[in-house]
């Protein structure tokens, strides 16, 4: 262990030496092993060869012995043969058990067989030899007996008549016996002589013939007995000899077989020995070659390693020198880092004593290092700090793991907070030797966090107190709320929880007449990617109708195509009522004015009164107007009424009545006279009228009436009245005030003939009426503006106090919307103030560029909507830091620029600022607003600057407007010691100019910017298709000291760049990307990649197109951005970014909100029932829900769902039900109603799934008991959001962020024509396998779509046709087959409306579905 530890701790050279030693040792071991193996193998071969030789030797000995075998051999020789056989077997066994060569072993495989045959033949030979000895003894014994018997005398024999001599016969017999004996010798001389059995039988036949026959020799005689015995012995002797002959022949055969076996054994042994010897020779040779090769390889590797080793050693020496130097530098760098770090860095030993501290710690503690090192915490810090530090140190040492903890240290008499990272230092044995701590001062951070929490609390208070509703919602038909402020409770009557937790929507509260308008406005804004403003009516929870003003903005998520809406809703009911009353008052004032004019201009009193009442009645929108005078009855002396004149709205002729002749006040009402005589009005209606008043109303054909007394010279002359035919009691203060003003004027006119005093009073009354109008306008405008000012004030306070991303956007939108509405009211108020002489100007310091920027912020959106360019052109000598009233200058500019945009359809609007005159610290500026609009005729110019007037009536109808704007501008410029005028050419455009006198500040911002930065004569290039914009930018650049070139087309741009590459590159290229009319992205990419034509690149953009080029900013940090219209400040900031600071860029958001799928995974597993008649939809729902760990059960229709519910015995096991709307038999609405009536299922939330998430579907779902809706094609995140909201309540994801995922993630899936594959896979939650299964399901279900549709059309089965088209629409939408989806929608719509286009659309749909199925079936990945 210590050796390896030592090796690991050695230098690189030592390691290389050790490696070389190991390699050489391995080579030596390998050579030695090979040698030992070769020697051992050779020894084994030699041993096996020797054993084969021994076997062959024994075989040879056996062969020698076998050759000596014969009938005459000694039987003792047999033991030698047995011994040799045993020796051969032993030698064979030893050879077979040795390392024989394979061929040698195969040669010896049959030796055992042959040895067994040899032994068998040998045993046969021994047996025959034994038989020979036995036969020889028997033959000798028989021969002796025969020979003895043959010597006995025989009786004489007769052959026929002749007598045979006994001596001759006996001699012949002896001779034949001797011949037999000779034959026996010949038998034993086998194989030199071969005796056959026939020869033996012939001799014995002769001997028998020599013996007398048995019948010639008397039996019982000696001769007879001898002859009988002789015959018997001869027979036995013959048998023995024949057996011997046969055995000898057999022995001959056995000897031959034995010799053959011995030869086979000998040949096998010789061949085995030969193969073994040859194999041993080859092995020896191969071993020699292998040994030589290994030794040569070892020598080569040794030399090669020595060469490499020397090179490595030399390289290591050089590296060592470099690393030593680098080590020294790193040590110095580490020391510098430690001492210059803003954090406290120190090291302690195991006793808690400091062994190292950095310079920052010395400064924080105010103690030098030598006073700290070697001491423990309790020797340096107070006990309360020391104990805490020591405890934390002990925790680290005990656990042996790093910790991060907050600690407190005293510094300069204050307690400071530090974030300490403490970790142990271990040696190579894993033992802790010391402790290191890095502490960062987080005291300011802690204070900032505390302040941030306070700011959040302030924000919540501000939002809760802001009049109006701030919201963030989904772009769906319900406008599902993601965030909504507490103001909604005051507006609607429902709290925030009803909208967020319970999923309530704003749309059900919108007035039915305005629902379509709201949806169309939002849809248009989303399509155009622009903000929207709209006024509409709502009914709150208590049925009260209210007017609201909404301003919102579609928000597009960069990572997906999802769109949400953010905005503000303000209750403008009071403003609307005030405006309505104001308009009524204006109309009444006009009526009073005209009526007074008629009274004055018409000489006949009754005719004048009739005309005046008609004008007043029309102005007040009443049904009739009448006048009664007072007279005394000549009969009774009572005060009676006399009807003078009456105007009826539906009758041309004056109305004359005699029903009231001699009718007194008492007959109608006793209170009328007293109220009227006290100059009080009388209002009467059928709802609360007395009998006499009711008769009066019936006679006057009115439901209600207002009576105003008329006094002449303070005398109660009578009254005028105004009646409403069908409405009752709809009278307000305006009616009362202006009717009284008219009655007063009428009284004066009636009394005009009574003297000049009365005439003067009439004049004063008219002037009072005019003043009343102005006062009323000022008062009402002020009342309208008051709540708006509160909104703006609270919003401003929120923007000042808070800087929370997202929330500040809400406040800015509130502020923008409020100011827009306030601008309308200010026009009215300003004009009223001007008329009343109460408008005062401010004298404050302001920045002219700030005024112009505000102007741009206000009008830029409208200009962009109409495709107009807005250009600001400053003269070089225009001062920017001024003294005056910036609000009024801005007001004039906004009026003029808004008018220019209103009357201009294409081209540009240019705002120029020039110096007309300078006098010390005073300056008169000339502003001009030029446009390329419709222009003005000469006769139209005369009415421009008059109140409530425009060029002509047609312009009012086309472009709208009150006609106050230019009148206010004229009066404001007059107040600022200036004038306003217009120069215009009809059909060409107009130039509105005005001058104002202002003061100049002592310090000018432009001079400060010039001092901070000034160009050195570098040449810059402006590429802008708008010449006016380019010229304005050129003036500002030249003011900063640059040399400027301009080009207005892409062709000219490339020519300038090619020229600059050959001469001198431009310092900066100011590029408007819109200069490229076609292939802009390709052209821009070429510009971005250019290196030699310019040094810096600045994009000229607007707030409305900068997102289009955001990818260039993200991918290239060297690209800066300058928004148009530019000014000196923005240009200066651009210089700092490009030449002296960080480059302006746009980066993608680092985070995104946590998705609902992850939130559902964090919860306990849910169980959901899916009810859908389409198999592919069921499969898709199951797969999507499984991604969120949701268990799913599916049924195919409403009856199946009800049957399933009935089986659970009032105990619903599901957390939610997803219900398809369009199903055959029982649709989703009916299923939900019946499901909600079943015990245990009443509280289970049901969410609708439908491809028709618009129109009245939402209200039908709510009526059926469904509390949520998922639109088809299904968006997974929308599905998870609905589920989470219905089960757990809507979750606010703003405070829970995770790192963003690559929204433009690409998936390993082939592109398919007609499908947005990657969008479809993202819709599947990123699961390409699920998308693949969806496509397979589509091919399976709609392969025969055309024939199925034709069959249903032939059967006129409209319900099935609708379901088929509806299901197709849902699945192709989920597949993201865009064109096919649009065609499916059109076809379904045409079928529902019974349009004539259905046949054509159905044909196209069948063809496209068939093509899509065919296309998908040829995709290999789907097979």
UniProtKB/TrEMBL annotation:
<feature type="domain" description="PAS">
    <location>
        <begin position="455"/>
        <end position="529"/>
    </location>
</feature>
<keyword id="KW-0472">Membrane</keyword>
<feature type="modified residue" description="4-aspartylphosphate">
    <location>
        <position position="1220"/>
    </location>
</feature>
<dbReference type="Pfam" id="PF01590">
    <property type="entry name" value="GAF"/>
</dbReference>
<dbReference type="InterPro" id="IPR000700">
    <property type="entry name" value="PAS-assoc_C"/>
</dbReference>
<dbReference type="InterPro" id="IPR001610">
    <property type="entry name" value="PAC"/>
</dbReference>
<dbReference type="InterPro" id="IPR008207">
    <property type="entry name" value="Sig_transdc_His_kin_Hpt_dom"/>
</dbReference>
<keyword id="KW-0547">Nucleotide-binding</keyword>
<dbReference type="Pfam" id="PF08447">
    <property type="entry name" value="PAS_3"/>
</dbReference>
<keyword id="KW-1003">Cell membrane</keyword>
<dbReference type="InterPro" id="IPR036097">
    <property type="entry name" value="HisK_dim/P_sf"/>
</dbReference>
<keyword id="KW-0808">Transferase</keyword>
<keyword id="KW-1133">Transmembrane helix</keyword>
<keyword id="KW-0902">Two-component regulatory system</keyword>
<keyword id="KW-0418">Kinase</keyword>
<feature type="domain" description="PAS">
    <location>
        <begin position="330"/>
        <end position="400"/>
    </location>
</feature>
<dbReference type="Pfam" id="PF00072">
    <property type="entry name" value="Response_reg"/>
</dbReference>
<dbReference type="InterPro" id="IPR003661">
    <property type="entry name" value="HisK_dim/P_dom"/>
</dbReference>
<dbReference type="Pfam" id="PF02518">
    <property type="entry name" value="HATPase_c"/>
</dbReference>
<dbReference type="Pfam" id="PF08448">
    <property type="entry name" value="PAS_4"/>
</dbReference>
<dbReference type="Pfam" id="PF00512">
    <property type="entry name" value="HisKA"/>
</dbReference>
<dbReference type="InterPro" id="IPR011006">
    <property type="entry name" value="CheY-like_superfamily"/>
</dbReference>
<comment type="subunit">
    <text>At low DSF concentrations, interacts with RpfF.</text>
</comment>
<feature type="domain" description="Histidine kinase">
    <location>
        <begin position="779"/>
        <end position="1000"/>
    </location>
</feature>
<dbReference type="Pfam" id="PF01627">
    <property type="entry name" value="Hpt"/>
</dbReference>
<feature type="transmembrane region" description="Helical">
    <location>
        <begin position="288"/>
        <end position="310"/>
    </location>
</feature>
<dbReference type="InterPro" id="IPR013655">
    <property type="entry name" value="PAS_fold_3"/>
</dbReference>
<dbReference type="InterPro" id="IPR013656">
    <property type="entry name" value="PAS_4"/>
</dbReference>
<feature type="domain" description="PAC">
    <location>
        <begin position="532"/>
        <end position="584"/>
    </location>
</feature>
<dbReference type="GO" id="GO:0005524">
    <property type="term" value="F:ATP binding"/>
</dbReference>
<keyword id="KW-0597">Phosphoprotein</keyword>
<dbReference type="InterPro" id="IPR003594">
    <property type="entry name" value="HATPase_dom"/>
</dbReference>
<dbReference type="InterPro" id="IPR005467">
    <property type="entry name" value="His_kinase_dom"/>
</dbReference>
<keyword id="KW-0812">Transmembrane</keyword>
<dbReference type="InterPro" id="IPR004358">
    <property type="entry name" value="Sig_transdc_His_kin-like_C"/>
</dbReference>
<feature type="domain" description="PAC">
    <location>
        <begin position="399"/>
        <end position="454"/>
    </location>
</feature>
<feature type="modified residue" description="Phosphohistidine">
    <location>
        <position position="1366"/>
    </location>
</feature>
<dbReference type="InterPro" id="IPR036890">
    <property type="entry name" value="HATPase_C_sf"/>
</dbReference>
<feature type="transmembrane region" description="Helical">
    <location>
        <begin position="20"/>
        <end position="39"/>
    </location>
</feature>
<dbReference type="InterPro" id="IPR035965">
    <property type="entry name" value="PAS-like_dom_sf"/>
</dbReference>
<feature type="domain" description="Response regulatory">
    <location>
        <begin position="1019"/>
        <end position="1139"/>
    </location>
</feature>
<dbReference type="InterPro" id="IPR000014">
    <property type="entry name" value="PAS"/>
</dbReference>
